[in-house]
Structure formats: C-alpha cells, structure tokens
Specification:
4-stranded antiparallel β-sheet; disordered N terminus; 24 strands; mainly beta
Length: 382
C-alpha cells in the first residue's frame, strides 16, 4: 500500500492509508469497567526509537518521546497527547518520498500536540478534538535557504533557493473537529516554486478545508490506544472491529474519511520485561508478580495487531498490552491493604507496554524502518 511518507516517518498518524471504508456498522463492545476507571487519571510516557532495518542490522536514526495523559471528570474523559522526534545525522535518517525525491531528515525535530474528549462509558467522542503537527522545514536544494515572511499579498511565507527544488517538501498541519456539530476544519500550506529575475523561490500559501464529519459510529484517531485497551475482546485469540476518523486522509481525498479498523490477538501471551515503575507494583490475584534482582517484572502480555480492514491494509501496528489479569497499583496503597479491592486500590490494567510501527521500502516488499514506543514511566497520580 502506498503510504504518506512524512506521516509514517513520524508515526503520528496511526492509520495512514488512502483507502476509506464505510460499510455497515457493527457493534463495538467495551469492558464495563474501563482499564483506567478506578484511578480516574493516568499518564504514560514512552521512549521512541526509529530504527533502520533494511540493511540487515538495526540502526537507530531518530529518538523521541510520546506522552499520553488521560483524565476523567464526571461522565467525560479527556486525553492529551504530546510527541517529539529528533533525527540524528546517520545516512539512513534521510528517506525517499512517493515521487522519488529525497526527504532530508538529518538533525530535524518534528512534534505534535493533540487532544480529544469522549464519553466515559461508550467512548463516543464529544466536544472538540484537535491536533497541531509542527513538521520542521526540510531543505529543498543543496544550498542555503532563507525564509521570508509575508513577502507579498496572498503568500504566507517563502524560501529563497539557489536552484529548483530537488528534495521532498513535508508540511505541518492542524485540525479541529467539533463532534457535537459534526463539523471540522483542516489547515496546512501548499508550496510552489517560482522563478523571479533568475532566482528561485518556494512560496507557501495557506490551504483550509472544511468537512462534515459523519454522524455514524466513529471514534477519534487520538483515542486509538484507549479504544484498543477498552475492547472487551482484548484477549488471546480475540478479534474486534471499530471505526476511526482520519482527518489527514480526509484532506487528501477532499471528503470525510472513516476507516474500518480491525483488532487481532495472538493465540498465546508474550512475555515483556518491564522495570518496576517508580512507586508502583504489578500484581495478579495471587499477589505481587516476581521481580528480578534488577527490579524487573516479566509481564505476560496480549500481543495485538491493529490495522485497516481493507483490500490495501499495509503493515499493522503491533501492541504489547499487559494481560487483563495484571494490575498496576501504588506501592503504598498495596502495602497498607494487600487484600483490598481493585476499586479501593485504584488499580489499573491493560497498559500498553510497547507499540511498534513498521514501514516497507518503496522498492521491495521488506521492512525498511520500524518505530518502537516503549513505556518508560507510568503514574496515576495527578
């Protein structure tokens, strides 16, 4: 499947296909008690590594941080996400876009912030969801580029260049979705190269599009990790289907896109080594899990694959999610009341310990990059 290069480079758009599916709706079943419900607040911090794999080994070309923070007040839950990714100067940091142009990523930093609000029990999105993706300006040629703000009426900004553009031209964007009125706005810039008195310039103008968001069953893209965690069929051999709004694809297709997503879980659990989060213990119904001398747990996990249900699905997102029988509990609360109920201990479960996104080389059916998110900090303390 053809992928939008910059979206997958940054692994921020979690469903980056050009194929939308709007078949008959199916019922989406969630657990009665959500994994985070007893705590009411949760903050997960992930270390990001983008790794080049096509050469036969593994070379890290970028590192970053992803933080997702959830808070429930009354019957509504709000999630805030922040993401940063900085490329190093390794030769494999640079990539090729779908047109064959080189995208110069070396030493660039990309970032986004996003938020969404949804109903506590049904997870149906309400109010306003937003995302603002700041993509660093890549060079468009081998020479220096000079930015000129507001050079003339109708142009937001432009870069002076030595030659015509030969590199890729990724652009940032922002959008807002009002799920109460089902209206949305997507903003980005459009660039074109012009020649003036023998010199080359890259002009950028604002491009704004508005869409009516379908009122049928759908969830917001920024909810994805929480949707997966709350699915009642998140278990070995479990499967599920749900629908996801995708505004980047809506912009590309100039029409609202709702993807049909599928969940498929492995036949047996997978073990994941996790350093004990500061101030927390992991337990099951028998008590605290065994820890190594280094203070690490061997956590049984559901291995879940999440991707598009379509004829052109592309690589799935692989998630390792702590088995539903494992709970995260504050050490102090557990030590004072080890026999306490999950609710009394404000226990949480089904925590995503790792997420992996893969990308294929354009010239061959093999994985070229994988981007791995690994849980490094966890708290339910506001």
């Amino acid at each position: 499947m053809k992928r939008k290069t910059i979206c997958l480079l940054l692994c921020a758009l979690l469903t980056a296909s050009l194929f939308g599916c709007n078949g008959g709706d199916v019922s989406v079943a969630f657990t009665e008690v959500k994994p985070w419900e007893y705590a009411g607040y949760e903050k997960c911090t992930y270390e990001i590594k983008r790794i080049y794999t096509a050469g036969g080994g593994e070379t890290t070309v970028a590192t970053g941080t992803y933080v997702t923070e959830l808070s429930t007040v009354g019957d509504e839950t709000t999630v805030h996400n922040t993401f940063t990714l900085t490329y190093n100067d390794d030769a494999h940091a640079d990539t090729t876009d779908l047109s064959g142009k080189t995208v110069r990523n070396k030493n660039m930093t990309d970032a986004y912030v996003s938020s969404a609000v949804f109903k506590r029990d049904s997870l149906v999105p309400v109010k306003t969801a937003t995302k603002s993706f700041a993509i660093a300006q890549r060079k468009l040629n081998d020479g220096e580029m000079t930015r000129e703000d507001n050079p003339q009426e109708g142009i937001s900004y432009r870069y002076a260049m030595h030659t015509t553009d030969v590199y890729g031209d990724p652009r940032g964007y922002e959008y807002e979705i009002n799920y109460d009125t089902n209206e949305s706005t997507y903003k980005t810039t459009v660039g074109n190269t012009v020649q003036i008195d023998g010199a080359y310039y890259r002009n950028y103008t604002e491009d704004v599009k508005s869409y009516t968001v379908g009122s049928g069953t759908r969830f917001d893209n920024e909810q994805l990790p929480y949707l997966v965690r709350a699915l009642s069929n998140l278990k070995t051999k479990g499967t599920a289907t749900f629908y996801l709004t995708n505004m980047a694809d809506s912009y590309l297709q100039n029409a609202y896109v709702r993807h049909t997503m599928g969940l498929s879980c492995a036949d047996k659990t997978t073990s994941f080594t996790l350093s004990a989060p500061g101030g927390y213990i992991l337990r099951n119904k028998e008590g605290e899990l065994n820890k190594s001398e280094l203070g690490e747990y061997s956590v049984p996990c559901i291995k879940a694959s999440v991707g598009l249900n379509s004829s052109k699905p592309g690589p799935d997102i692989q998630m390792l999610i702590s088995d539903p029988s494992i709970f995260f509990v504050r050490s102090q609360a557990y030590e004072s009341d080890p026999a306490g109920s999950d609710q009394a201990l404000q226990a949480t479960n089904r925590v995503i310990l790792q997420m992996t996104y893969t990308e294929y080389a354009l010239s061959a059916a093999r994985v070229a990059y994988k981007t791995v998110y690994t849980l490094k900090d966890y708290t339910t303390k506001r």
